[in-house]
Every structure is written in C-alpha cells, then in structure tokens.
Design a protein that fits this description.
single chain; about 200 residues; mainly beta; three-stranded mixed β-sheet; 16 strands; about 0% helix
C-alpha cells in the first residue's frame, strides 16, 4: 500500500527476501518491478498462485516465493529492511508465530488499518496479533486493497506495505497489502508503498 500521495517506483530499488527455518541469512532477493500508484497496492505471488485465485490480478510472480509459517519474510529498499513478518534468526517450529487465527501457519493475516509504519527491526520478538488481524486460511476478501487510518485521511504517516503470506499445504500464495493464508501487510520504504505477496509452502 502506498499512502504517500505520490507514485513509488519499485524497479531497481525494492525487493523481498526470505529467511528460511530460523536462518539469519536471506535467500537471493526477489527484485520487484514496476511501480505503485498513490493509494495503490502491489501484489507479488508465487508462480502457481494465480491459477488458484483466478479472480485476482497479480502484479508480479516468482517461483522463488516459497515459504511456510516459520520463515521470516522481509520487504527491503536495497538492503534496508522496511518491514518484516516473523523474527529473523528464530525458528518458532511448524506452529509458526502467534496464536490462531492471527498465526503465521495456515491462516490469513492482514495488517491492521491503524498500523502506519513497518516493522524495521527484524530480530525482535514477533507477535502477529499486535499489528495483524487473523482470518481463516485462504481468505482473499480485501486482497488488492488497503485502508490506513493514520490521521489526515487514508494517508499513512510512513509507507505501509503489505505481505500476504501463503500458509503451508497450499501450492502457492501471495504477498500484498491484504490477504489470505498468512496474509500480511507492512510498510514499504521511506517513500511509502506496500507490497502484497504470497508464496508456496516449502514444507
């Protein structure tokens, strides 16, 4: 979600990285391409996801977007973390972080409308319920849209991006400003933008 009032260019700057199974080292970045219009969102999904959600238009897909509930996912501007889901360097086990329904395994989490900045500290403790609303796995209502109640209308004080993290047991998923299986929304760079993404389960 881009709440800055101006379009944000993603190409050459923004990327998404995964930290699998408690690793402190990110996998190769998924470089984002295109831009996010003011008030718009960007949907990044695993290559298999569009077939599962034919009613949703995704902005970008990647076969590298594979993760489950115990993998941390970060949105970055270059190498600077803009937002993160999970705790980098920590493996919570197959149950993931949090408690149902706001849990990162086999659920959908959506960023609360009152959260106006991303979690830039990827190594601190992560409790999804603090900044995310939880829904049943596979919920796609609202995927591709986001409302930020941050004062001054729907303009976020800082960029807010979103990650829709696919839960385990599903062939694909999406990261974005709002949506299913471990659905996650977070801030995007200091310019303010949000990316939605979902990934396939990595087992």
């Amino acid at each position: 979600y881009n709440g800055t009032g101006s379009a944000i260019t993603l190409t050459g700057t923004y990327n998404v990285v995964l930290y699998a199974n408690g690793s402190s080292t990110p996998a190769s970045p998924i470089n984002l391409t295109g831009s996010i219009a003011a008030g718009g969102v960007f949907l990044l999904a695993h290559t298999d996801t569009p077939a599962a959600y034919p009613s949703v238009t995704f902005n970008q897909t990647s076969g590298s977007l594979t993760f489950n509930g115990n993998d941390a996912v970060a949105l970055r501007n270059g190498t600077t973390i803009i937002d993160v889901i999970g705790q980098i360097g920590n493996d919570p086990g197959a149950g993931g972080w949090g408690t149902d329904p706001a849990n990162t395994t086999d659920n959908t989490i959506s960023r609360k409308s009152t959260i106006c900045a991303g979690d830039t500290n990827g190594t601190d403790a992560f409790d999804p319920a603090t900044e995310w609303d939880g829904f049943a796995n596979g919920t796609i209502s609202g995927l591709g849209s986001h409302t930020a109640n941050c004062g001054g209308g729907d303009v976020a004080r800082q960029p807010v991006a979103g990650l829709h993290v696919g839960g385990r047991g599903h062939g694909g998923g999406a990261l974005g400003a709002r949506e299913a299986h471990t659905r996650d929304e977070a801030p995007v760079a200091q310019e303010g933008a949000a990316v939605e993404a979902a990934g396939a389960a990595d087992g």
